[in-house]
């Protein structure tokens, strides 16, 4: 279950997130901390998509052309 504050953030167009493939998770964690100055919550993208029916997830990993599995918020 997604944190209610982060869920509302994404529902209202928040853009402080990274989607990534499993083999890119470590890189995404490092970049998120460097870019935003805090540790992210990590969720399975499929679960977030179920909770946020109107939200459209990016279709590719930020670092590769692979299908993303995780979202860091």
Count of the domains: 1
Strands, count: 3
Rg for CA atoms: 11 Å
Average per-residue pLDDT, rounded, comes to: 96
Poorly predicted runs: none
DSSP helix fraction: 25-40%
- Looking at how many chains there are and whether they match, the oligomeric state comes to single chain
Class of secondary structure makeup: alpha+beta
Tell me what you see in this structure:
With 73 residues, the chain is an alpha+beta fold. It has one domain (4-72). Helix content is 37%, strand content 12%. It has three helices and three strands, in the order αβαβαβ. The chain has helices at residues 4-11, 25-36, 45-51; strands at 18-20, 42-44, 70-72. It has a three-stranded antiparallel β-sheet with strand order 1-3-2. The protein is globular. It starts with a helix and ends with a strand. The model has no long low-confidence stretch (mean pLDDT 96). This is CxxH/CxxC protein. InterPro entries: YyzF.
SSE map:
Layout: H1 4-11, E1 18-20, H2 25-36, E2 42-44, H3 45-51, E3 70-72
How would you summarize this macromolecular structure in one to three sentences?
Helix content is 37%, strand content 12%. By secondary structure, the chain is of the alpha+beta class.
Supply the key terms.
3 helices, 73 residues
